[in-house]
Design a protein that fits this description.
FAD/NAD(P)-binding domain; 5-stranded parallel beta sheet; globular; binds flavin-adenine dinucleotide; oxidoreductase activity; Zeta_carotene_desat/Oxidored; FAD/NAD-bd_sf; FAD/NAD(P)-binding domain-containing protein
Length: 525
């Protein structure tokens, strides 16, 4: 039987998806219990979406590790705001990377032969960055693979040094050559967003980017769920939005229950035999991935919605979490490689960096290239070196690695079968957004048009801009703001957070942040 809309003046809001975006939206609306009656649903049996933790053997130093989202940078102010409110903290880490192997190996910790050989490319690249900085808008949509050719950079430099340095930070994997040039430029020239800032004119990247690693994601999201429930939000897990049947004058949806799996991860597309029932709401906030949004809107989607949502591109990747050190040693550089270290880097004495490398080389982000096509990457985390709770002093045999095989389409190039089965802790498939230039030409500039409609519909999620946890949180906060929620005072007083939020709000909703819409906060700044 259909539920009817509430007879009170409260707006009945359905939030679909309890990932970072949906939870942030629910959080914003829950501060106005007099105006909103909030229900958040998720097809899975847990809140957090792509941010979750898994249990591991205590011999690794802790009995948990984060599996999807692992960390971010100091710009993640909205994420930190929610950590603090729930009593959690992020931990700082100085990032070390290790790209390639043998004569193709380089790192940000100390210079190597590869870096030395590309002295003229690095010089050219520095000059090119300055030009791009001055003429930024022109490069906004030009793919990196094109601009690097225009700059006259060698293929080896681009493939073995430049692309890996971008792929890991931006999480763009094999879509890196198609990234808009402006993203590459920002990564090297922006004091705020530039993880490789300042670009080193002698060795490309010699800084150790200050990053943060997240607290236990599943615990944090469970606590957040509890806080939302205390504030009157109805959280319904194992509940899937099967279809939106109409949205005017009210939103009618078909919701299907899901059978809970032991590990709380319900497989996509299962449980279709369970009957869906209709429910009615005043507003819907869709915080799923864009292609899911298009599917559930089905025939009710407008042409504009079909076009924008349909222009997002996705790849299916798999992460293998394992302890196979032989596999890692075969394909990655995980230990200090004396034969590749270079003390004098194009006239500059870098022996101090080499000494530091000898003692402290503990790379966290690693990349391997497919030999036949170096533009196809395999990415890997040494989670033990990266995640603060794991014991870095353990022998490498006891480190936990997460190897990411990108894009099922390229499966024939994967070496996944070489990872010993008895060393695998867990495997997870992910449907990941590709940040090609088309995303910034045909999706991002039009999200505000989707959000301005008479169909009681709002879209949020990291796909609206960049695939990052912080963007998801900002998008959910902006969705709540659009519907009438206030913006938290501590974030308003934080210059960086406020500017980021205002830019996002304008870009994806065409709205400005009003001074009289700031909510007093319980957090001290
Ligand atoms: C392997 C991996 C590592 C990553 N590492 C990082 C990192 O270190 N740092 C970082 O900042 N970002 C990282 N990201 C990106 C980051 O995880 C995402 O950008 C962010 O978590 C997305 O949040 P979201 O709320 O937009 O979407 P999601 O987290 O995907 O949430 C969407 C939710 O909608 C639910 N849902 C889908 N369909 C339905 C339906 N029909 N009915 C009901 N519910 C539905 C899903 O179950 C899900 O819970 C990583 C991503 C991956 C895959």
């Amino acid at each position: 039987m259909a539920r009817s809309s509430t007879s009170s003046n409260k707006k009945k809001v359905l939030i679909v998806g309890a990932g970072a975006a949906g939870m942030s939206c629910a959080d914003g609306l829950s501060n106005h219990p007099d105006r909103f009656d909030v229900t958040i649903i998720d097809a899975q049996a847990y809140c957090g979406g792509q941010a979750f933790s898994i249990p591991i053997d205590k011999k690794h130093g802790a009995n948990w590790m984060n599996q999807g989202v692992q960390g971010g940078s100091y710009i993640y102010q909205h994420t930190f705001h929610h950590f603090r409110k729930c009593g959690y903290e992020e931990e700082p880490v100085e990032l070390q990377v290790s790209f390639g192997k043998g004569d193709k190996f380089w790192t940000n910790l100390f210079p190597t032969n590869l870096v030395s050989q590309h002295a003229s490319d690095i010089k050219k690249f520095n000059r090119f960055l300055k030009i791009v900085r001055w003429t930024e808008l022109f490069w906004a949509l030009i793919p990196i693979k094109v601009s690097c050719k225009m700059a006259g950079l060698s293929d080896e430099f681009v493939d073995y040094m430049l692309f890996p340095s971008l792929a890991l930070f931006l999480g763009t994997g094999n879509a890196t050559p198609d990234l808009p040039t402006i993203m590459m430029e920002r990564l090297y020239t922006s004091p705020t967003y530039g993880m490789w800032y300042p670009c080193d004119p002698k060795s490309l990247s010699s800084n150790l980017p200050p990053m943060v690693v997240f607290p236990e994601s599943s615990e944090f999201y469970r606590t957040w769920q509890g806080k939302l429930e205390e504030r009157g939000v109805t959280v319904r897990l194992n509940t899937e939005l099967a279809a939106v049947t109409s949205r005017d004058p009210v939103v009618r949806v078909m919701l299907r229950p899901r059978r809970q799996q032991e590990d709380l991860h319900n497989p996509d597309g299962a449980d279709q035999d369970l009957p869906a029932t209709e429910e009615v709401y005043d507003e819907i906030v869709i915080c799923t991935l864009a292609d899911t949004a298009k599917r559930v809107l089905g025939k009710d989607a407008s042409r504009r919605e079909k076009w924008v949502l349909g222009n997002t591109k996705w790849s299916d990747d798999i992460t293998v979490t394992h302890t196979d050190i032989d596999y890692i040693k075969k394909y990655y550089t995980i230990e200090y490689d004396e034969s590749q270290a270079v003390e004098n880097i194009n006239g500059r004495d870098d022996s101090q960096r080499v000494r530091k490398g000898e003692k402290e080389f503990q790379p966290m982000y690693l990349i391997k290239q497919v030999p036949k096509n170096p533009r196809l990457l395999e990415m890997c985390f040494d989670c033990t070196n990266f995640q603060y709770q794991l014991d870095k002093n353990l022998p490498l045999e006891d480190h936990v690695f997460q190897t990411i095989f990108l894009n099922k389409r390229d499966e024939q190039t994967w070496t996944r079968d070489e990872i010993r089965k008895d060393k695998i802790i867990r495997e997870d498939w992910w449907h990941q957004l590709c940040h090609s230039w088309t995303h910034y030409a045909f999706v991002v500039p039009f999200v505000w048009l989707l959000n301005r409609n008479k169909k009681h519909t709002t879209f949020a999620g990291s796909w609206t801009l960049v695939n990052a946890h912080e963007v998801a949180v900002i998008s959910g906060t902006a969705a709540a703001y659009k519907l009438g929620a206030d913006y938290p005072e501590d974030l308003y007083k934080n210059d960086f957070a406020r500017k980021a939020f205002k830019s996002y709000l304008f870009l994806t909703h065409g709205l400005t942040l009003a001074k009289n819409r700031i909510r007093k906060s319980s957090i001290q700044i």
